[in-house]
Specification:
This protein is α/β, with parallel strands linked by helices. It contains 15 helices and 19 strands. A five-stranded mixed barrel has the order 14-15-16-17-19. A four-stranded mixed beta sheet has the order 6-2-7-12. It has a four-stranded mixed beta sheet with strand order 8-11-9-10. Helix 1 packs across helix 4. The longest helix is centred in the N-terminal third of the chain and has 20 residues, at 42-61. Residues 503-507 have low confidence and may be disordered.
């Protein structure tokens, strides 16, 4: 009988979540580098370069890869010959490990978990509770697989119950374009097939914890129907031309993972969940001999990418930029922003809208300013701000017309992913602009932020309104003042180009 001490499990969980906050899995780094080498779309290649540079910076600096340091998800396979030291529940031990990881003063991680989700939505401040899945198996060890899963990719989860005769591939190809770019491609698709509805989604999540091996599968060929489906979906999804960050290109997914389970004859439950460019997961085993040890990978695992900003980028002074200047920018154009940049996201936008509805004065003058949709990590060691990558802009679409209108008067927005039709119409009507920063390059973006101060709504924590002092912050015009969207034109162009490329697997 193996005894697992409370402290051994707690500290192993804490160390593991710290580890994955700044170390990408080596297989993911290699897959992104291979995609970078193959990429022919300049915009997508630049995005992949930023992801790789950011990954190395995070590994060197032991700072989060992404500002969204994820919700803690833990899968446990507990041997039936294992005993745990009494005194705490399994959930409590894991939550204490998560708490230690996310409040570590040397590398604080952003707390994103909210209690009372349909009520007050109060931040728990330490990212607890974790989501824990337990299976009892033969043996005398505890097998732990865990992941830090960001909201942008989680929000793109999909579920359906197909008829037994329906095509799984057709359903995936229908859903992928509808998911947009908010999940920060390129990444991995996890697909669960069969079982019951909740089993299908659970398998989709668990499938994401496997290593990337699609190129090995291509080399040896499929040995089962599931492997055939992996290859078919991989080829056909990449042929959609969505590309890195949805900008259009050859690589949308790095791998497709499928788990299946026997199911009822009347249907075919299917769950699909993507992993983003901040893929973070780890596997370890406890055998009663002490806490797990995680060896830091060698920096030689990361490629040296010579990136000094987007080629030919236009420099923009946020202190003097005007609508007339913005009118000359084109969708897909690279910019380097310098000056004072406001921030705000979901909670701040809702509070602003409520204040306007009540006729109350706003605490910040937004006229002729740019706003950045971001919830940064707390700073350490002299940083102006911690990792501060963009959040999904689509969630702010409902507020866009108010924010761009004469009462508030913004002229520019920065986030990630596409905007919806109403937001694009508002951008065009007001002669404004929407830009994107690279999701999955949060630490790199933070290097361009030289100062930060809270202007309003300090009680909202990471969702407060800040003023950042930025220098050469790299962004891309995603929707120009004429309403042209790079998230529409880019994938359309590359879908046509891929159709003319000789049959190959574009990973």
């Amino acid at each position: 009988m193996t005894m697992i001490l409370q402290e051994d499990l707690i500290q192993s969980i804490a160390d593991a979540f710290q580890y994955i906050s700044y170390y990408h899995p080596a297989d993911f780094v290699r897959a992104v580098k291979a995609a970078y080498d193959r990429e022919e779309s300049p915009a997508a290649k630049d995005a992949l370069a930023q992801i790789l540079v950011n990954s190395r910076l995070a590994a060197e600096g032991h700072r989060p890869i992404c500002q969204d340091t994820g919700m803690a998800v833990v899968f446990l396979k507990i041997g039936m010959d294992v005993r745990f030291e009494p005194g705490m529940s399994l959930q409590s031990m894991i939550d204490e490990g998560v708490r230690r990881a996310y409040t570590n003063p040397d590398n604080p991680l952003r707390a994103s978990v909210l209690a009372d989700p349909v009520g007050a939505r109060r931040n728990t401040r330490d990212n607890t509770p974790a989501v824990v899945h337990v299976e009892l198996v033969p043996g005398n060890t505890v097998d732990v697989r865990l992941a830090a899963k960001g909201g942008g990719s989680e929000n793109k989860a999909r579920f359906t119950v197909l008829n037994p005769s329906d095509s799984l591939v057709d359903w995936v190809l229908h859903e992928l374009p509808e998911m947009g770019a908010g999940w920060c491609p390129p990444g991995i698709l996890g697909i669960g097939v069969g079982g019951s509805p909740e089993k299908a989604l659970l398998m989709a999540k668990e499938a994401l914890l496997d290593r990337i091996d699609i190129q090995d599968l291509i080399a040896r060929g499929p040995g089962s129907r599931v492997e055939e489906l992996r290859l078919e979906i991989y080829d056909k999804v990449n042929a959609l031309g969505i590309g890195a960050q949805g900008l259009g290109g050859l690589t949308t997914v790095l791998d497709v993972k499928i788990m299946d389970y026997p199911t009822h004859a009347a249907g075919l439950p299917v769950g699909m969940i993507p992993n983003c460019a901040a893929t973070r997961h780890l596997h370890f085993t406890l055998d009663g001999s002490g806490p797990a040890r995680f060896e830091p990978p060698a920096l030689s695992e990361w490629p040296e990418i010579a990136w000094n900003g987007p080629v030919g980028a236009r420099r923009v002074d946020l202190a003097t930029v005007t609508r007339a200047e913005i009118a000359g920018w084109k969708a897909g154009e690279a910019l380097l922003l310098s000056g004072k940049l406001l921030t705000g996201r979901d909670a701040a936008h809702k509070r602003i809208a409520d204040m306007v509805a009540r006729g109350e004065p706003l605490p910040v003058d937004f006229h002729d300013r740019f706003i950045y949709y971001v919830g940064p990590v707390d700073p350490v060691s002299g940083e102006a701000v911690g990792p501060a990558g963009p959040t999904t802009a689509t969630r702010m679409d409902r507020f866009t017309d108010l924010m761009l209108g004469p009462q508030i008067g913004l002229i520019g927005m920065v986030g990630k992913a596409e905007r919806g039709p109403e937001a694009i119409a508002s951008i065009k009507a007001h002669g404004a602009v929407y830009c994107i920063a690279v999701g999955g390059a949060a630490y790199l973006v933070a290097k361009a932020i030289k100062g930060a101060r809270v202007l309003a709504f300090e009680d909202l924590g990471m969702e407060a309104i800040y003023e950042f002092d930025v220098q050469d912050m790299p962004v891309t015009v995603a929707v120009d003042s004429q309403g042209h969207s790079v998230h529409e034109s880019g994938p359309r162009e590359w879908r046509m180009r891929i159709g003319r490329i000789p049959l190959a697997r574009h990973g």
